[in-house]
Amino acid sequence: MMKRRDFLKNTAVIVAGASVSLSAVEWLDPKEILAANPQLRWGFLVNTHKCVGCGFCVKACKIENDIPLEANVTRTWVERYVIKKDGDVVMDSPKGALNGFTTKLVDQNHSGMTLVPEKEIAQAFFVPKLCNHCETPACVQVCPVGATYQAADGVVLVDRTWCIGCGYCIMGCPYGVRFFHPVEHVADKCTFCYHRISNGGNSACAQACPFGARQIGNLRDPDDPVAQALMNERVGVLRDEYGTKPQVFYIGLNKEVR
Amino acid sequence: MKNHVWRPLFVVIAMVIGILLFRAVYVPSDFGAQERGYTFGYHRLSNEQEWKEYPAKYKATEYCNECHDDKVEEVASAHHAMIPCENCHGAAFGHPDNPEKLAIDRSRELCIRCHAKLTMPTSDRNDIPGIDPAQHNQGDECSECHNPHNPSLEDM
Fold first, then answer.
1. pTM of the complete model
2. B11 lies within 8 A of chain A by CB
3. B94 in A contact zone (CB under 8 Å)
4. Residue A257 falls within a domain, yes or no?
5. Residue A110 is part of a domain; what is its CATH number?
6. Using a CB-CB distance cutoff of 8 angstroms, which residues of chain A are in contact with residue B51?
7. Which of B1, B28, B74, B146 is in the most buried spot, having the most CB atoms within 10 Å?
8. Please, where are the H alpha helices in A124-203?
9. CA-based nearest distance A82→chain B, Å
10. Pair (A129, A99) in one structural domain
11. CB proximity list for A189: less than 8 A, separation 6 or greater
């Protein structure tokens, strides 16, 4: 005859033992562990409060990545938003802010340079833009030849020897960050400065920013400052509704920002 | 089967074999679906390494500090400490070998990137001391009065 105490004890041991061995089998599948937690996923954090619109990031990016300074294309740019008290939004980005914002006049294209009177301004701020290195990038899906792709660490790159210059990806990107390289004659985009971050450096734009408005980091490393900020601060992404899962996160994003 | 059926069929078979041969020669062996699968990772794997080897132009303040530690220390205690050397002095490239000297940007346009007064109520730009470039000593270089390494107005 088995005592009730022994029966419960044995049952507990067997149940615990069985569940441990089952979970151990699941844990030991290396593919699944890797798929669930790869060691590296690059992400970017922009603090719009800290950005002062100096445009040093744009200049550094262009020089670092051999994008002609005066060509009307850029891998990153800064936008100025001026929100008026009556709700109107005026914004501009002269030359992508290559030379910063040095005048109160806002470039309104056909309507010319507009001065918003000081007493009418409710909010005014800068928003740096760059490739979002999406988790499900639309630009990669539309490439007909396999020239643009996503590396295992999340960075979206273009194979310049393979690109045929069809421009599908330029049209496919919801953020308009791709352009036709005027010298290389292929599609071009921000690489998160792959050559710098892969060799232990910082991206050229983040390094050139005197105010720490731009930060690049490993989203899989819980001790990384960017990963920490994503956990502890209120961040937003651009155009979430496109379902591309962008990996550039913004602190202080307004609904007026497109 | 009749000859008139075989002859065009031979042409088609020859074309298919030709295309397959061309493909085998032209497409690199490391081309295919990589870690991100067929949808997002279909590419030539060695291109990742090629991008990693792209030459860097900016070398960061730590690099400048290897020789110009006196200057780096001088700036470190001033208001401009947060500005990387290369923002004004230009990207290092292969300095000191090539180029031997860097071209310093002393233009007003550089300074007013931050110091042109704008009305930006919800941006840190509002807190930076600013001037109206059209009114403030027009035509003079800023560095004639202000020391860029120590811009404190008390020390002027």
1. 0.86
2. no
3. no
4. no
5. 3.30.70.20
6. 157, 191, 194-195
7. B146
8. 138-141, 168-172, 194-197
9. 8
10. yes
11. A75, A131, A139, A156, A158, A173, A177, A178, A179
> Cβ contacts (< 8 Å) between B48 and chain A: which residues?
151, 157, 194
d(CA B140, CA A147): 51
Please check whether residue B44 lies inside any domain of the structure.
Answer: no
Which of A4-8, A34-38, B79-83 shows the lowest per-residue confidence on average (mean pLDDT)? A34-38
Q: How far is CA B18 from CA A252, B4, B26, B30, in A?
A: 58, 22, 12, 21
Query: Among partner residues A54, A118, A122, which is closest to B114 by beta-carbon distance?
Result: A54
B124/A147 CB distance under 8 A: no
What span, in angstroms and rounded, lies between the C-alpha atoms of A250 and A229? 10
B31 touches chain A (CB under 8 A): yes
Selecting from B41, B86, B112 the residue whose C-beta is nearest the C-beta of A102 gives B112
Q: Does the pLDDT at position A188 exceed 60?
A: yes
Our count of domains for chain B comes to: 1
Q: What is the pLDDT of residues B119-140, one digit of tens each?
A: 999 999 999 999 999 999 998 9
Judge: B58–A204 Cβ closer than 8 Å, yes or no: yes
Residue B25 within any structural domain of the chain: no
- What average pLDDT is seen over chain B? 93
Q: Strand, helix or coil at A118?
A: helix
Q: What does residue A161 show for φ and ψ, rounded to 5 degrees? A: -80, -15
Q: What is the pLDDT of residues A104-113, one digit of tens each?
A: 999 998 889 9
Residue A157 has a pLDDT of 97
Q: Are residues A61 and A170 in the same domain?
A: no
User: How much is the average pLDDT of A227-256?
Assistant: 95
Point out the residue among A146, A151, A252 whose CB comes nearest to the CB of B42.
A146
Assess contact for A55 and A100: CB atoms under 8 A: yes
The whole-chain average pLDDT of chain A stands at 92
Q: Domain span at residue B139?
A: 61-144
Question: Residue B18: inside a domain, yes or no?
Answer: no
Q: Please give the tally of structural domains in chain A.
A: 2
Domain match, A58 and A181 both: no
Q: Which residues of B touch A195 (CB under 8 A)?
A: 51-56
Within the 134-153 window of chain B, which residues sit less than 8 Å (CB to CB) from chain A? none
- With respect to residue A242, please indicate whether it lies within any of the assigned structural domains: yes
DSSP A137-151: -HHHHT-SSS-EEE-
Q: Is residue A15 part of a domain?
A: no
| pLDDT over 90 (residue A18) | no
Partner residue facing B43 (CB), from A50, A102, A146: A146
Residue A28 belongs to a domain: no
ω before B84 within 30° of 0 (cis)?
no
ipTM of the complex: 0.90
Whether residues B56 and A201 touch (CB distance < 8 A) is answered with yes
